[in-house]
């Protein structure tokens, strides 16, 4: 059984999954850009998403997509120093985003501990939330205080978390802002900055991308409609569509 409003696409292996998602992502962003002259992509971390980002350059050829007019946001970030290898922005830019001709003013990295507001996690989350809200003045979306966000490539963990919204964690119920501070993450590092469900559910196309058998249980629970406390990744819903992109191993426990 599939939860209402959710579609599942299954590809043979991680290589085909990454290539296919990249091709479809470029098509979504190109269509958005054709409509309003710009587009916005939200990314998160994880090996299959980094592999997908590495396919974007090839997928962009002859697409008409101008990456210099694409805004990039991060759905979650580890609150560590800007030169830390734990940063999601560092990993995803190195995986392929940094090779696309992005412009600095459209790269919206979350603050680091040595950044604009120092090592105050609450101030850093508020700063990023304010940046999201400010962008809404230039490119308003259908949800107040959040800009038009065309697509998110969202990973999941074997425990069923998405972004930095973990099972049983207080952040699951903080929905008065788009961005929150996360403490006591069950995965290190313990302090993070994350989109809330309010932020995630303001995105047009929510795509969850998962590969490998260690994601199979979580995918089956989420797609089957498990509750938010046990499986947060089943909750995000796109304004236009919600798609779970899986390789055969990650789909192996679907009913």
How would you portray this structure in words?
With 255 residues, the protein is α/β, with parallel strands linked by helices. It contains seven helices and ten strands. The chain has helices spanning 14-36, 47-53, 56-60, 88-95, 121-138, 197-200, 216-223; strands at residues 7-11, 39-43, 70-74, 76-78, 107-108, 149-154, 179-182, 192-195, 203-210, 241-247. Strand 9 (203-210), helix 7 and strand 10 (241-247) form a beta-alpha-beta unit. It is globular, with a radius of gyration of 17 Å. The model has no long low-confidence stretch (mean pLDDT 96).
CATH architecture: 3-Layer(aba) Sandwich
**Order of SSEs:** EHEHHEEHEHEEEHEHE
The structural class is alpha/beta
Distance between the termini: 7 Å
Q: Main β-sheet, in a few words?
A: 7 strands, parallel
Estimate percent helicity.
25-40%
Strand order of the largest sheet: 1-10-9-6-2-3-5
Number of DSSP E strands: 10
> What's the CATH class, please?
Alpha Beta
Q: Mind telling me the C-alpha Rg? A: 17 Å
The 3D shape can be described as globular
What proportion strand? 15-25%
Short description:
This protein has about 260 residues and is an alpha/beta fold. The protein has seven helices and ten strands.
Question: SSE layout and pairings?
Answer:
Blueprint: E1 7-11, H1 14-36, E2 39-43, H2 47-53, H3 56-60, E3 70-74, E4 76-78, H4 88-95, E5 107-108, H5 121-138, E6 149-154, E7 179-182, E8 192-195, H6 197-200, E9 203-210, H7 216-223, E10 241-247
Parallel strand pairs: 1-10, 2-3, 2-6, 3-5, 6-9, 9-10
Antiparallel strand pairs: 4-8, 7-8
Helix pairs in contact: 1-2
């Amino acid at each position: 059984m599939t939860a209402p409003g959710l579609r599942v696409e299954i590809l043979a292996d991680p290589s085909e999954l990454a290539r296919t998602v990249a091709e479809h992502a470029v098509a979504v962003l190109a269509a958005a850009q054709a409509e309003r002259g710009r587009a916005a992509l939200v990314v998160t971390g994880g090996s299959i998403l980094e592999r997908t980002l590495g396919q974007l350059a090839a997928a962009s050829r002859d697409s008409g997509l101008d990456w210099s007019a694409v805004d990039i946001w991060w759905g979650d970030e580890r609150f560590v120093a800007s030169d830390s290898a734990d940063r999601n922005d560092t990993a995803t830019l190195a995986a392929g985003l940094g090779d696309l001709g992005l412009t600095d003013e459209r790269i919206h990295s979350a603050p680091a501990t040595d950044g604009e507001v120092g090592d105050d996690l609450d101030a850093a989350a508020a700063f990023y939330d304010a940046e999201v809200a400010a962008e809404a003045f230039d490119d308003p979306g259908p949800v107040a205080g959040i800009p038009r966000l065309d697509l998110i490539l969202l990973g999941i963990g074997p425990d069923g978390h998405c972004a930095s919204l973990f099972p049983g964690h207080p952040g699951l119920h903080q929905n008065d802002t788009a961005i929150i501070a996360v403490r006591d993450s069950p995965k290190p590092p313990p302090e993070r900055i994350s989109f809330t469900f309010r932020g995630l559910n303001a995105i047009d196309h929510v795509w969850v991308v998962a590969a490998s058998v260690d994601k199979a249980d979580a995918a089956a629970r989420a797609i089957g409609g498990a509750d938010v406390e046990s499986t947060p990744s089943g909750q995000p819903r796109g304004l236009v569509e919600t798609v779970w992109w899986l390789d055969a191993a990650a789909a192996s426990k679907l009913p």
